[in-house]
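It would be a great kindness if you could assist me with a short task in structural biology. The matter concerns a single protein, recorded as an amino acid sequence and a row of backbone structure tokens. Could you please explain, in whatever detail you think fit, how the structure tokens follow from the sequence? Thank you for your consideration; the sequence and its tokens are set out here:
___
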Amino acid sequence: MTKIAKSEFGKLSDGRTVSAFTMRDGENRLTVLDYGGILQGLVLPDREGKPTDVLLGYDDVAGYLGNGGYLGALIGRFGNRIDKGRLRVDGREYRLYINDRSNHLHGGREGFNAKIWKAEIDGERLVLSLLSPDGEENYPGNLKVTVAYTFAGGVLGIEYTAVSDQKTAVNLTNHAYFNLNGEGKGDILGHELHLDAPYVVPTDEELIPHGGFRAVKGTPFDFTSAKKIGAGDALRGEDDDLRKGGGYDHCFVFEKGRSADAPYAVLYGPESGIEMKCYTDMPAVQFYAGNGLNQTGKSGHRYGRCCGMCLETEAIPNNVNVPEYAAFGSSFVDAGETYRHFARYAFSVRR
């Protein structure tokens, strides 16, 4: 049975308290903050039984106030990028906040990653909720958002729901950085990754996709059979799409009709023996290999390039402007329509 305990994590500059919720599942321990819905720590025993924290993060509130790279945070209203911040809803154009070169990224100036969420312990679930008011970051509609965390049997579950009183766009995700050998234990280039995705979406120089799909077969993006993330010369940047991202920072697209009961990804840390199987009902995932990491995290550990990686379940970026992508899963929701999706991460140890 999962036990959930609440404690004070720290205070914001305006005096508001940030709370930590620790979910214990046997020897496993997950810590979630009500600030940003952040996954602050995930401690699991490795193959030797040693407790291993597999999430990058910070020890205090001050670290998360800067939080370059969105470590562990809930992302909204819209995960990933929207070209030039242009959102057109039923003929009316909304100009979203520009915060990534000339584009809108991860919800704008102050996304859901920078909010204190209302938190409730509901039995073995931790339920976070907030109201994003009409016009916030220039999005239309009062949007009620609920995110529920579960942690039992070695499985972290995240269920996202949202309802708006106007037609709007929603694309929620989480920006956890995993290092299955342990945070602060070097880079993830030796991790083995299997990613059941036959396509990536090509982008321009600002990482905006405008249409089309690229087959991964025969390219550095082919993880349809498990391989090391840093295998061969994949990260030398000779591939044009890889060069644009400075490494892996790309949306991988699943086959239509893929069963959500099958893992879309399996990640393995060879030093710890910890394996993570990933599940979702979303049509795509952004695989980011932490190319831009350059900060000091927990216990003074230095997080440099590729010291952690993200698998952000999502609809295809910029699908609000590309009907071809919306056909794989549109981010538009009508007034009163319930947006809903899930992500699960199942942990075990290879002996």
Notes: The chain has a mean pLDDT of 96. The first strand starts at residue 3 and ends at 11.
